Amino acid sequence: MRIERSYIAVASATAAEGLISFLVPPYLDSVHFPVGIIGVLVASGALAALASRVPAGLLYRGRRARALLVGSMLIGAVAALLLPHAREPLAFAALRLLGGFCYGVATTVNLARFIDAIPTGRDRSNAMGYYSAALAMGFMIGNGLGGFSGELLGYPWAFTLAAGNYLIGAIVAATLPPPRAGATRPRAAGVSGGGRWARLRVLNEPGVLRVTLAAFLLAFMQSISGAFMPLYGLSVGLALSEVGIIRTVTALINVVTRSLGGFVTRRLGRTPVMHVGLTLQAVGLVLIASTDAFWALFAAMFWVATWRAIVLVANTIALTEDIDEARVSRGVASGLFNASSDLGQVIAPALGGAVASLFGLGTMFRVLPPLVLALYFGAMLFTARREVAART
Fold first, then answer.
1. Residue-wise over 56-90: b if at least 16 C-beta within 10 A, else e?
2. pLDDT at 218 over 50
3. To 10 degrees, the CA torsion angle through 74, 75, 80, 84?
4. 20, 82 contact by CB (below 8 A)
5. pLDDT, tens digit, for every residue of 223-234?
6. Is residue 74 part of a domain?
7. Is 351 domain-assigned?
8. Please, what is the average pLDDT of the chain?
9. In a domain, 304, yes or no
10. What total of structural domains would you count in the chain?
11. pLDDT tens, 170-202?
12. CA 231 to CA 303: how far, in whole Å?
């Protein structure tokens, strides 16, 4: 159970954040916030998580992991409880900033601790696939609770359920043992010298820039549907519970597909899986704008979720295999990886909200995914050439 409890801890945190992320757009719409402001407020939680990633990674040590996890989840629970009582944009943003920061600390520390705790000789591809599946399981629970609790119980009770998920995570985190002795390897002198923030020079280490750029663009693509699919569904006449069903089922697809993602990636190779998978995900997002009924939107999101899950597992495996832990600490690697994902989640809702307010949600779905796909292939070409030049 040295690593299995980490699955429960991360699933609890993502269930809480998934529930909150699902509820925030329709809740803000119900109190008559304009779509542009909704996009900014959705991005505020991810912005705070982004700000937490590198400091949490730098603070990470095996002996501190439990205290950081328990403290961040308890504070996140309090912030979730207070959300439905914030009716002004600044008050709501402050609570989302606090909650997002705590979520960022919890998930960064848990990922670093999990990688350090993987037993020697265990298949890391499978372990990371299961970890990614636990993330998706949490979001599935959060999305399911969000759709039905928001409609049947009201928003205050729904946000209370998010706080309860954080509380479960804190209880489980309190039982986690420290990682195995010697799991954290020494850093190279060039990485550790010059003060804490000088460690960001690890972006020059082999694999780091490629993995972090991919994480940023994958998260951007994911956030397009995560932030705006509920609003699009409601705009074409779906009930909140129907949107919740779509989010829950697609999250279940994420769980199943991510569990198999390690096997698929080993058989086909990470690079082909990521290139083809992201392309097919972009196609599905563009097709969302052509749907106007439950089953059509369900089919488009099913397709998107399947390819998203496979691609995310492939890039998470790259985090463990392509970055040398003797040169880059697990805490810093985890912090940079998660920070890149959060940056995508910050920019996507804000940019998507701006495009949607000017041209409509349908146009946003047609324009942004192809743009992100082009940026992804450009970034992969750039980093590949850069790494070849560094070796020669």
1. bbbbbbbeebbebbbebbbbbbebbbbbbebeeee
2. yes
3. 130
4. no
5. 888 878 888 998
6. yes
7. yes
8. 82
9. yes
10. 1
11. 999 998 887 765 454 444 433 444 454 445 565
12. 19
